[in-house]
Amino acid sequence: MMWPFYLMALVAIVSTIRVVTNANPVHALLSLIVSLIAVAGMFMLVGAPFAGALELIVPAGSIMVLFGFVVIIVNL
Length: 76
Prior knowledge:
It contains three helices and no strands. It is mostly helical.
């Protein structure tokens, strides 16, 4: 049961590094969404479904939509 947790941790680390090092803001935004989804999956695996659901709803749901609109409006 530990290998899915480590897989999601690896996905979260790699996608977070891609957020910081990526020059294209749209690709950085997509990598940030992948990172937040991986962290929510890690919460689900350790037995905290409420924290995982909050991780999906609050940051990945609302804040990422706001960042997406900013990227679209500013024409990055």
